[in-house]
Protein backbone atom coordinates (compact mmCIF):
# COMPACT_ATOMS: atom_id res chain seq x y z
CA UNK A 1 0.00 0.00 0.00
CA UNK A 2 1.53 3.29 -1.02
CA UNK A 3 1.70 6.35 1.14
CA UNK A 4 -0.80 8.19 -1.09
CA UNK A 5 -3.46 5.46 -0.93
CA UNK A 6 -2.99 5.17 2.85
CA UNK A 7 -3.51 8.91 3.20
CA UNK A 8 -6.66 8.77 1.01
CA UNK A 9 -8.01 5.90 3.07
CA UNK A 10 -7.51 7.81 6.33
CA UNK A 11 -9.14 10.90 4.82
CA UNK A 12 -12.13 8.87 3.65
CA UNK A 13 -12.53 7.20 7.04
CA UNK A 14 -12.35 10.57 8.79
CA UNK A 15 -14.93 12.04 6.40
CA UNK A 16 -17.19 9.02 6.89
CA UNK A 17 -16.87 9.34 10.68
CA UNK A 18 -17.72 13.04 10.60
CA UNK A 19 -20.65 12.43 8.25
CA UNK A 20 -22.04 9.60 10.38
CA UNK A 21 -21.61 11.71 13.51
CA UNK A 22 -23.56 14.55 11.93
CA UNK A 23 -26.28 12.13 10.86
CA UNK A 24 -26.60 10.76 14.39
CA UNK A 25 -26.70 14.24 15.92
CA UNK A 26 -29.29 15.54 13.48
CA UNK A 27 -31.47 12.43 13.85
CA UNK A 28 -31.87 12.78 17.61
CA UNK A 29 -34.40 15.18 19.07
CA UNK A 30 -33.58 17.02 22.21
CA UNK A 31 -35.44 19.45 24.38
CA UNK A 32 -33.59 22.74 24.77
CA UNK A 33 -33.92 25.48 27.33
CA UNK A 34 -33.13 28.82 25.71
CA UNK A 35 -33.62 32.22 27.41
CA UNK A 36 -36.06 30.76 29.90
CA UNK A 37 -38.12 29.03 27.22
CA UNK A 38 -38.34 25.28 26.98
CA UNK A 39 -38.34 24.49 23.30
CA UNK A 40 -39.68 21.09 22.22
CA UNK A 41 -37.84 18.38 20.43
CA UNK A 42 -38.51 17.92 16.72
CA UNK A 43 -40.65 14.91 17.58
CA UNK A 44 -43.06 16.62 19.98
CA UNK A 45 -46.03 15.81 17.74
CA UNK A 46 -45.35 12.08 18.06
CA UNK A 47 -44.78 12.15 21.84
CA UNK A 48 -47.37 10.61 24.11
CA UNK A 49 -49.23 13.26 26.04
CA UNK A 50 -49.48 12.94 29.78
CA UNK A 51 -52.59 14.63 31.12
CA UNK A 52 -53.04 15.22 34.79
CA UNK A 53 -56.56 16.45 35.60
CA UNK A 54 -56.92 19.31 38.03
CA UNK A 55 -57.30 18.14 41.59
CA UNK A 56 -59.08 19.81 44.47
CA UNK A 57 -57.88 23.29 45.32
CA UNK A 58 -57.41 22.40 48.99
CA UNK A 59 -55.15 19.37 49.25
CA UNK A 60 -55.94 18.27 52.81
CA UNK A 61 -59.74 18.13 53.26
CA UNK A 62 -59.74 15.05 55.54
CA UNK A 63 -57.10 16.49 57.83
CA UNK A 64 -59.00 19.78 58.05
CA UNK A 65 -62.22 17.93 58.87
CA UNK A 66 -60.44 15.88 61.55
CA UNK A 67 -58.97 19.05 63.12
CA UNK A 68 -62.38 20.73 63.08
CA UNK A 69 -63.97 17.70 64.74
CA UNK A 70 -61.20 17.58 67.36
CA UNK A 71 -61.64 21.28 68.15
CA UNK A 72 -65.41 20.84 68.44
CA UNK A 73 -64.93 17.85 70.76
CA UNK A 74 -62.42 19.81 72.84
CA UNK A 75 -64.86 22.68 73.09
CA UNK A 76 -67.59 20.32 74.35
CA UNK A 77 -65.24 18.77 76.93
CA UNK A 78 -64.43 22.18 78.42
CA UNK A 79 -68.07 22.83 79.37
From TrEMBL:
Where does the signal sequence lie? 1-29
Organism superkingdom? Bacteria
Q: Which keywords accompany this UniProt record?
A: Signal
- What protein name is recorded for this chain? Uncharacterized protein
Q: What is the lineage of its organism?
A: Bacteria, Pseudomonadati, Planctomycetota, Planctomycetia, Pirellulales
Amino acid sequence: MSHQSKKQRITRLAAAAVFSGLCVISATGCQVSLNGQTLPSPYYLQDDIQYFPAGPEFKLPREAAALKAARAEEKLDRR
